[in-house]
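Q: What would this complex look like in 3D?
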Amino acid sequence: MATQTKERVALTGNEAAALAMKQINPDVCAAYPITPQTEIMQIFSSYVADGLVDTELVTVESEHSAMSASIGAAAAGARAMTATSSQGLALMWEMLYIAAGLRLPIVMPMVNRALSAPINIHCDHSDSMGCRDSGWIQINSENAQEVYDNLIQAIRIAEHPDIQLPAMVTFDGFIISHGMEIVDTLNDDDVKAFIGPYKPAYSLLDVDHPITVGAIDFTDYYFEHRRAVAEPMFHAHKVIEAVAAEFEQKFGRKYGLFEAYKMDDAEVAIVVLGSTAGTAKVVVDELREQGIKAGLVKIRVFRPFPYRQLADTLSGVRAVAVMDRSDGLSGFGGPVFGEVRSALYDAKQRPIVVDYVYGLGGRDITLEHISSVYQDLLTIQKTGEVPTQLVKYLGVRE
Amino acid sequence: MANLKELAKKGHALAPGHRACAGCTFPVILRQVLAAADTPVVCCAATGCMEVTTTIFPYTAWKTPFIHSAFENAGATISGVESAYKSLKRQGKLDREIKFIAFGGDGGTYDIGLQSLSGAMERGHNILYVCYNNEAYMNTGIQRSSATPLGADTTTSPAGKAKPGKAQQRKDLTEIMAAHHIPYVAQAAPSHWNDLITKVQKALTVDGPAFINVLMPCRLGWAFQPQYAMQIARDAVNCCYWPLYEVEDGKYKITYKPREKQPLVEFLKKETKFKHLFRPGNEHLIEQLQAEIDRRWEELLKKAGDC
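A: Here is my prediction, written as structure tokens for the whole assembly.
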């Protein structure tokens, strides 16, 4: 039976993240400000100041140190969290790989913001997409409710004995981080019971059983250790789905690897991440009213990438548009495009797949933009021809 | 004061079999530091000679818990470890008394890790940071650092036909750490083991951060025969090239004053990295080095109220 919601409240995405962190009550939290994440750490600092959490707050001097301190804390057997955005994540880059390589289940809200240059504080996904191969589990959120729910689930996923990898919960800067929405929150005790106590297999503080963390590997062991880091990504989907099932059973809200919206008989579909999914669903509903078989896939878990499940869902769709809120600067579109297109190579009925790079630096994405994408897909469906221009830029002056 | 007999009974905290060079002084420094601790310690090291030669998987020379994460962040990494300790202890999940020591070479401390170190010191973690200062990037093959002295021949400040080695004087990191107004800052050398161990003992008892800068003669980078490491460290102290002193709650104290200050050439002539300074036409460099040593020594005497 589902547990009662504690309270239905109006929260911004940042407030929802901070509340989840308060209820998670990490042993150590490293804090450093960056727009649009700053508010999370401000709110969390006030929880610390008011004695509402047991957390040791480490007010570091950079994001590089935020992740380094989190790594030290996690290796010492603490449940460790931090949060960042954009340039902050870029500065952490080196340490992201090390957190994963050392198998430390650090969990971090990551508020999506464009990368410089030019400097820009608004939303796109360049930051988290840039570290997609760092060994972090990446869970995307469409709205404040998902931010809250995903963070709580991320603790269970990251710390699972079969996973032992760090996880970031991403959400769109300003659009979600600063937009106020209705959020159903849970009781502190229910969250505490759901995540359970952290029981690390090893700790630096177990001085009677000393361990060496971060040893050097030469050609004889490095590959085996990196292979071991790759392994949990092959079966993490099972754990992620099991945690989601338990979450749904206890709290009544359903989560999967991705959301298939009106996909059962869809002939044209878009694949999207984050807040744009909400806008796009409105367009799908309008098209459906016109009798057009439009659908949408919203990817929740980008790492590990649910390629098989996506291929099953998108197989048979005639034309698919991938919406990339970051550019790969590869001459071949954005990162989501490359991955979705690759996933579809083995599909029984392979759709034509095109890419739309949109919304860079917080550029608005409107219903009209999304409608125009579906119109393009309908044209592709009609002609059955792969367009010569596979990658388009949506909403830019050129 | 440390008692050699008592220390000898403690055994080695660093296992033999590590792959430091013959005549390397960091294992000596490390053993002296760890011998000073009476409570269990957790150690951390920046990427560098110490870390790469002691942790070659599947082996480790460390008998204490040890973490290395990257090059520029020993200060932040040990901050995280110490914060976990504080948190778990406060929550009643741990009741042991544990001390925390980070090690970094001069590259990882003076240069790339300075920001991380400064942050850790300013935040007041209960940690000791030991810089094993061999005055250049030795692990990557003897490149100049901000700890490298004027005129030294390194692979990125080579003594060539147009330029006679490093063009700049050394940065004074010990003073930068003293300017953080932390409870304990000191300079030490492994040749003066009792002085070094006593300083570590003090550093581990203060409430808050401590920093000790230890001169580490490097037989490879400074280019001397392995048996001379301790003699060279002693020369550095006796020339006042590396004064032994401490700053305890802001109060300066010179802990070893040479009976007679030796001329710097005694120190310089034993190392191949300074060989070119003795060629005709380079006399002015030795003079500049000596003048700077004299100036800094006078400054220190004033701070310690010894003049």
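A: To summarize the key features: The interface with chain B takes residues 27-28, 30, 54-56, 58-62, 64-66, 68-78, 80, 94-95, 98, 102, 204-207, 210-218, 221, 225 of chain A (CB under 8 Å). The radius of gyration of chain A is 21 Å.
Q: Very helpful, thank you.
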